Amino acid sequence: MGIDFFANERYKVLMCLYERQIEVNGKIYAPLSQEEISQVVGISKATVNNVLKELKKEKYIVQQNRTRGKYTLTDKAMQFINELQIEGDKKWKSQKKI
Question: pTM of the entire structure?
Fold first, then answer.
């Protein structure tokens, strides 16, 4: 999947989870309910539900022990986010030189 896959609510939900990760007993996860994600991102709970299903299907996130509100970003997700940050830094630096 490329950047086009994330040119919408998927990106917002993924970044919402990424920015709210915590570590507990050596495990990192985002402790957010679908309602909380909905409020933070500004989309409906139904849309959040669909986006989470897509992110799970494409292996960007996993649900911790099938527990509601505990999502872990996979290595695939972290790699994608790192690539976005690198590209963003490059664009920012190139604009700064102008």
Answer: 0.81
